[in-house]
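Sorry to interrupt, but I need a hand with the structure work. It will help me judge whether the discrete encoding reads sensibly. Write everything out right here, beneath this request:
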Amino acid sequence: MAAVARWGRGIRWYVRELTGESAYERYVGHLRRHDPDAPVPTRREFERRRTDAQEGDPGAGFRCC
């Protein structure tokens, strides 16, 4: 049973990394370690900034249009 749970956690981690779902948690952790007094953006603000940055650099993303 433990092997099945470990396998499930591994699949969940992989899907979250693949889809970018964990990027916000990583960013907040990085921000807290390097600048604890900095304001933390909401998830919506973070996603908006990330999308704007990707669209501003056409070579950085997988967008076709």
